[in-house]
Amino acid sequence: MTLRARLVMALGAFVTLGLAAFGFATYVRYSNVEYQRLDDQLRSALPSVSRQLTNAVGLDDRGGTGRRDDDDDRPAVSIDNVSVLRVVYAELRNPTGQVVARITSEGTPDLPAGPVAANRAFSVGSSEGSGNWRVAVATASSPNARDYQVLIATPTAPVTDSLRELLLTETIGGALVLLVLVGGSWFIVRRGLRPLEAMGDTARSINAGDLSQRVTLADAKGEVGQLGLALNSMLDEIEDAFAARAETERRLRQFLSDASHELRTPLTSIQGFAELFRLGQQSEHVDQAVIMRRIEEESARMKNLVEDLLLLARLDETRTPERSSVDLAVLAADACSDAVAIDPSRSVTLDAPEPVLVQGNSDHLRQAVSNLVANAIKHTAAGTSINLGAHLRDGMAVLTVRDHGTGLSPNALSHVFERFWQADEARAGTGVGLGLSIVDSIAREHGGAARAANADDGGAVFSIELPLTPDHPDTEGFPK
């Protein structure tokens, strides 16, 4: 059974119980009032009826004895068609309970025989078996008939008819009220649960694979609206998590593909040179020294690739490496010396007027600076000058490596820090595209970022931005 049906049925049950209780209380109250009114009418008629009945048998106030032939056992006197208010039946009974006079009309109540307790009212049936009568009992009002009883009765048909009409009215009215309330509640509950139905449709769409679906919120302030907001927030996180996982899987597949390709190239070369070496043992035209040198070079290249992959794997781990205070100005100066040693034909300058202290891993930061310098040497022509700098900028430590080459294309600026990405396919054999990826990973490991841009007057500028050490003199006024 649906929630809507259960809510409407519960509301209908409570309304039915409420209407039934109200109807019962109203019926009982109205019945008591009507019978009390009928009893009051009977009591108000008692004196007049008593006087007429005692007069009829000679027990009036003029001293009659109630005897016509001096015989107390004479039959009862019947006086028909006497209209006394609304009373339609009355009896006068002697002390032994014998009826000595009566006023009759249509129908006769089934009164109890013998003496009856006075000063009370009660209901009896009809001698004909149709309808009920209301009876009032009192002592005769004449002084000569103090031991006589007067019983007057009137049919309860008007009261029962009124009660029947009341019951019918309550039944029909209650049914209409219940119908209106159930119908209205069905509409209201359906309207109120419509957002939940929309949530169910959204959940089914998401289960089918469409993670972009969201719950439409008509009223964000209500309980259902708050639930919708929470659901949308959860769906955003789920979609982001799935997107991140998909991106991670894509990058992993790309990484494995590129790594396999890069490893296959030196392995193929080594295999080829080993085959030439085997053939060279049978031929004097093969320079075996050249073959061995090439095998050694390709082995070194493969070793460097594996080391770079291992370094990237370590950088991707969440654990924090050992850190100490590192001066980027010193690292830049050492990198300048290394660049001059590698290529003496280049002009390598340093701009680091003061210490720039950061908290980090010295080996990793030195690796990052070396990779930037090696990238500048590798992708610029011989003799191209290189500038290194270490400065403070907006509360951050910034190390820059600038070359004066041709700069980077817009496509290269977007992908230069991606793993195995290379801008020049013609130079595919000169590197594997992991150097700048390592730089980016090291910068993020230290809470900073690696950036690439083109200088206004030409050439590419690579920079590493890192937080200063808390005790650095220039960190005052900046968030720590």
Automatic annotation (TrEMBL):
Protein name stated in the entry: histidine kinase
Keyword Transmembrane helix: yes
Region (Disordered): 56-75
Catalytic activity reported: ATP + protein L-histidine = ADP + protein N-phospho-L-histidine
Keywords: Kinase, Membrane, Phosphoprotein, Transferase, Transmembrane, Transmembrane helix, Two-component regulatory system
Source organism phylogeny: unclassified sequences, metagenomes, ecological metagenomes
UniProt EC number: 2.7.13.3
Annotated ranges, domain Histidine kinase: 258-470
Amino acid composition bias (Basic and acidic residues), ranges on this chain: 59-69
Subcellular location: Membrane
InterPro entries, per the entry: HAMP_dom, HATPase_C_sf, HATPase_dom, His_kinase_dom, HisK_dim/P_dom, HisK_dim/P_sf, Sig_transdc_His_kin-like_C, TCS_sensor_his_kinase
Pfam family, any one: HATPase_c
Broad EC category: transferase
GO molecular function: phosphorelay sensor kinase activity
Cellular component, GO annotation: plasma membrane
Bilayer-crossing regions: 7-28, 171-189
Span of domain HAMP: 190-243
